Amino acid sequence: MKIAVLPGDGIGPEIIKEARKVLEVLQKEGLAITLEEAPLGGAAYDQYGSPYPEVTQKLAHEADAVLLGAVGGPAYDDLDRPLRPERGLLAIRKDLNLFANLRPAILYPELANASTLKSEVVSGLDIMIVRELTGDIYFGQPRGIRVNASGEREGFNTMLYAESEVRRIAHVAFGIAMKRNKKLCSVDKANVLETTEFWKEIMIDVAKEYPEVTLSHMYVDNAAMQLVRNPKQFDVMVTGNIFGDILSDEASMLTGSIGMLPSASLDANNKGLYEPSHGSAPDIAGKNLANPLATILSVAMMMRYSFNLEAVAQRIENAVKKVLADGLRTADIFEAGSTKVSCSEMGDAVVAAL
Amino acid sequence: MKIAVLPGDGIGPEIIKEARKVLEVLQKEGLAITLEEAPLGGAAYDQYGSPYPEVTQKLAHEADAVLLGAVGGPAYDDLDRPLRPERGLLAIRKDLNLFANLRPAILYPELANASTLKSEVVSGLDIMIVRELTGDIYFGQPRGIRVNASGEREGFNTMLYAESEVRRIAHVAFGIAMKRNKKLCSVDKANVLETTEFWKEIMIDVAKEYPEVTLSHMYVDNAAMQLVRNPKQFDVMVTGNIFGDILSDEASMLTGSIGMLPSASLDANNKGLYEPSHGSAPDIAGKNLANPLATILSVAMMMRYSFNLEAVAQRIENAVKKVLADGLRTADIFEAGSTKVSCSEMGDAVVAAL
Ligand SMILES: CC(C)[C@H](C(=O)O)[C@@H](O)C(=O)O
Ligand SMILES: CC(C)[C@H](C(=O)O)[C@@H](O)C(=O)O
């Protein structure tokens, strides 16, 4: 099995280095994986003049799974839109057809204080957000900035979902709900937007194939509220690309430890791209301060979803729980009484706990 | 000055009745206002077969300001889309050109415990969200559900902002920032959507006319996170219709007391529609349990923005603060040690405290 490793920008290379340590242990133990690196985002622009150059495309297509650090940084802010780092991210998602983005929001009991929410509201929080990732207003055509019939400039984009796009993400979400508490909440704005009225109709249709799952529907504005009011009412949520972008970030911040949260973006055959939910944190890049746990937990997700190695996934997750229980904390999750460690010390500790 | 009073559905009539008591006191004291009622939403559909019938349109156009309760309820869920209650709300906003929606998120010190957030995170919270209300994907054409070139069904909508639409909401937001802490945060998704890249460009241009205001920009996904992480970093926020729908609901829920929060929707001449931020709460309708304070505070906003009567606005706001300080609470904000009152008792108490 070939893993494409894309360190990216900012803290990307540091956190990837620690995640590689975990992969290399598995490799030494006999897991048949090979690792190959390529640049994405700003790093790729610097080297090849494109945020998703051919060399990276080729590797990404050959690989069985992709591990990504993070992309972006102020150095690239003035680039033309098609050259910016985040374009590399959008391009690889689309190119590999990674339509199913899974973003867990889990509160680790050891880190309960990190949440800005009262502990009774978030203790035990464990939500899985399933976000459609290759459709919607992110990719809809037509789009642009134009002069309209009245001679005035206007910006415009197209929100769009075809039936097959909604069906396939629905099946992913129902499948995940089946493995969890059999509760699925589909988020839409069906009272205003035909796209999401259509989305809702398809969800209801696919639900017939999963009679054990209880499907509910919620407007996106209400969902943004309910995540704050009572997040534990949710188990699996499914929504479109733009609403999912917003709600998954909100949900992950409820835990107070976004540095802990992994993500998976899957195609129809469980080939996937795995990356931390957090960004490239340019302010702390190169200082060995970053938290590598979200990236390491992304490796666990890779073992689970792309390689169907549930036991290995759990072993990695348990190693992370152990270092937390041992009181080790990077700066972002440090609190009085715990032991502050660097990015590389945290990676070493996880390897030792494996 | 003529005020159109639209009780609407659910708890609408009850909360409007209490807000009317306040208006009637002002009237008796000599304020030259007349009040006239008309139906909107489900009530209007029941009576006239349309959620925004001609009689209501006529009154709304004649009036100097509109006071609305709330619209919607399960009784109308099976109606055809154009007949549903929320269509009445969207129609009156568009018909009166109410492009500037002001939604404060204020934490009342007496209700600090109602928030699900830790008190140090939200104490003193006072954010004003300025949401554009007559453009964006809410009204953009083309839209619908169609069969595409591949013979597949798809839902689609158009996000769209013309330059003049962004300019006028920018001026409202900068104007409000000038009267507050001179800090304005514009929320966009300029890294993905041309519409909001254009929005950002116009914001930067309008900023030149307000050199005293510090303008910042934030992506919508980050804004959804930052509202949870550290809401007090915000003073005035400005954003488009759909992002504003989501973020203003999230922000109001941070206070834990959405039953306390008013809103104003203004046109270019400060004619406005005033309504509570909460909905029609069909589950408690007709039980005299609702909290009328958001509606009463909406009357205060009406005095401030449409009638330029700042002293009267403050007098109403102070009366609300007084009843809270006296320990009076409707069911939604009740806690041990306070005095539980009904909707009408709360209205009477505010009148007594005026
Ligand atoms: C960087 C940006 C294009 C991206 C997105 O909006 O999808 C990011 O916010 C994410 O959620 O992965
Ligand atoms: C009822 C609905 C159409 C409306 C909106 O989306 O604008 C509501 O959510 C609001 O914010 O006033």
Number of domains of chain A: 2
* Quaternary assembly: homodimer
Question: What hetero molecules are in the model?
Answer: 3-isopropylmalic acid
Q: What is the CATH homologous superfamily assignment of the largest domain in chain A? A: Isopropylmalate Dehydrogenase
What does the average pLDDT of chain A come to? 97
Spatial strand order of the main sheet of chain A: 2-1-3-12-11-4-5-10-8-9
Report what the structure shows.
The structure is a homodimer of 354-residue chains. Chain A is globular, with a radius of gyration of 20 Å. In chain A, 40% of the residues lie in helices and 21% in strands. In chain A, strand 1, helix 1 and strand 2 (34-37) form a beta-alpha-beta unit. Chain A starts with a strand and ends with a helix. Chain A has 354 residues and is of the alpha/beta class. In chain A, 55% of the residues are buried. In chain A, the strands form three sheets. In chain A, strands 2-1-3-12-11-4-5-10-8-9 form a ten-stranded mixed sheet, sandwiched between helices. A two-stranded antiparallel ribbon of chain A has the order 6-7. At the A-B interface, strand 7, helix 7, helix 8 and helix 9 of A face strand 7, helix 7, helix 8 and helix 9 of B. One 3-isopropylmalic acid (IPM) sits between chains A (86, 89-90, 245) and B (191-192, 221). Chains A, B: Belongs to the isocitrate and isopropylmalate dehydrogenases family. LeuB type 1 subfamily. Chains A, B: It holds the Pfam family Iso_dh.
